[in-house]
Amino acid sequence: MIQNLIKHLPDQKQLNELSKLKNEYKNLSDPEQFAIVMSSVTRLRPRLGAILFKLQFEEQVNNTKPEIMAVSTACEEIKKSRGFSQLLELVLLMGNYMNAGSRNAQTFGFNLCSLCKLKDTKSADQTITLLHFLVEICEEKYPNVLSFLEDLQHLDKASRVSAESLEKSLKQMEGQIKQLESDLKTFPQPEDVHDKFVTKMSSFLVQAKEQFKQLSTIHKSMENLYRDVMEYYAIDLKKISVEEFLTDLSNFKTMFMQAAKDNMRRKEMEEKQRRARIAQEKAEKEKREKQQKKKHLLDIKTEKDETGVMDSLLEALQSGAAFRNRRKQAPRFKVEPQDFSSTSTAPVLKPCNHENQKAPTGEKLHPHHSMNGTSVRNPACKDSHRKNEANPSVEKRNSVGKKKVTPGGTQRRDEIELGGAKGDMIPEVEALLARLRAL
């Protein structure tokens, strides 16, 4: 309010003209009445200026002092940080390695403003920068270097401080203090006993001088500190201001921290890809093992089947079960010559008397039955039967011969039947052997 009042306050000539209208005070409007009252105050403008300075002085001190302290502390941290010095050594080493063989090889130092240019040097695949590589080297091999991030805690705040603004604020405060001191010396004695302006402002002036003296002291200390730091790092104050110096370092710190985050995200991504690759390889391996196991089981099953076939075949051959289900055929009789006397007229074969002769016990099929079950007689048997009927003596001799030949005939029938079984066994064995060869 006081600031607006000073801004819109009429000049002294107008105030003098308004003071002449005191007798018409009641007939004037409110703004005019206010102006008449203000015109009655002795040295109104200096009073308002002093009051405004008193109200703003505490705020000015609270704004200026932290900025001075931030710059001073940041300069001390930069100079005393061991991690920051080691970081600069690594940067210099990397630069000399990269510049080997060029005119910049074996350099003894570099400008600190070059720290922000580390991000401009990229790898061949454009994925990482020299700054990312520096951060990775520090994290893996030189973790102590990372302590500079904690050492330079006041760097961000100090980078936002303007030395020119600080100096301007201090000069303004100094001018206001001198102006107040001058006004109090020339200020007339108050006519009103209730006018405490001089008394209040005199006590404030003493406090203001003391605080301003403290600010001036720490400001000079700040200037000495940043001059020492600039000289320590071989920086020309005429070319680079303290604001530029602190801003470059603050930007480098921010980029360094961002590069560390980028490396962490990249490692997490690589780890994620590695795990996915391992999981895929594991799945493929399990799939292959499963297929191999399945194939192995099939091979084992095939071997077991083959082994089972061999075992079954051998067992069937040994037990004779392979021939039990075959169709039995009629025995094949072979006419074997017998040594009869020249006077014997008995036929070689037995008379085929199907009406009076029954099949031997144990024979299921009659040797003279056809496949359709009908009985067919041999013509030779018919003729023999007729001869026997015509010649009873011959029939008698045949009956005698039959009694003698019966045991031998039974044995021959068994041999003939076994021979037929062996004859039938050969094709079946060959078929089984062919099946084994196919397996």
Automatic annotation (TrEMBL):
Residue stretches in coiled coil: 266-303
Key words of the record: Coiled coil
Biased segments, Basic and acidic residues type: 352-365, 380-398
GO CC annotations on file: actin filament
Domain DAD: 305-335
Domain of life: Eukaryota
The protein's name: Protein diaphanous 3
